[in-house]
Amino acid sequence: MQTVAADQRWMRLALALGARGAGTTWPNPFVGCVIVKNGIVLGRGWTQIGGRPHAEPIALAQAAQQAHGATAYVTLEPCAHHGQTPPCAEALIKAGIARVVVATTDPDPRVSGRGISMLRAAGVEVTTDICKSEADHQHAGFFKRIQENRPFVTLKLATTLDGKIATRTGDSQWITGPNSRKYVHLLRSTHDAVMVGRATSTADDPSLTVREFGAIKQPVRIVLDRQLQSSPTGNLGQTAQEIPVWMCHAQGAQTQGWAKTGAELIACASGPAGVDLGDALGKIAARGITRVFCEGGGTLAASLLRHGVVDQLITITAGVAIGAEGIGALGTMEVCALADAPRMKLVQSKSFGGDIISTWHPA
Fold it and tell me: How many CB atoms sit inside 10 A of residue 219's CB?
């Protein structure tokens, strides 16, 4: 007999499997699938690098003939359209799956209820909304790209106790400890792209790569640089042919230097303080990016907060103080009344190698 508790148990396993694809499956969502019969797992799968194969056919291949009469737990509604691969809903039907448990439905207009309808029309029992809130959060980047034409944005701020990111001379290595810096590499690996502003690109000459955990697929490196003032001979320019670099710039910027590096040049509208943020995020999403990890600097971070597009804020606070002459974590916010200030709610906070790491979501 199936119970809600049993369904939740297997769905949480499917969600954990799906999370293994975070940062590697765009433009597709990272989906998990578990096939169970009589309390025994017969097959499991998650979306592979580049978005294919999907989770369901991988799990079905493992289950083989035993899939007949089994239950499939899927973190997102099985696809119902013919693309580069046949529909997953069709594959589940052909395998003889008796019941499909779906965490949340797919807003993609090519699917959007059609996968569930296809299963039910074939006589497959379908249960929906098991662990829906967890699945909605896990697939938030894919949903935002489809529904809002922008990626899910995580903003990271690593600061001193008094909210500074560097001394008055620009010295910032290292405010946080080695464990926190490794954690940042983990966060990079679970996002499709890492984004910085022109000031950070110029001052730090960053690589923006994942250098821990044996990353298989590096995130796209994105720089918002209205006039393309970042040096094309720096780390990003020198590695643009090996790991993608996208330069978001204004119309009329001098592109010759960056064009020679192999970086993708994305012309965007201009805003008051640089590249128009909404236009840039829209063009990034149109290229398939679902999750962006923003590492600064202060002007870009303030702009993201001011425009209300920060979906997750991660603060890393170190036990050191610099003072008023230090460089603040945020640029101008133009907040006159406290009631107008962006509000975040604390989701989690923990001590980590001497630092405090906190996760915040919009209030």
Answer: 27
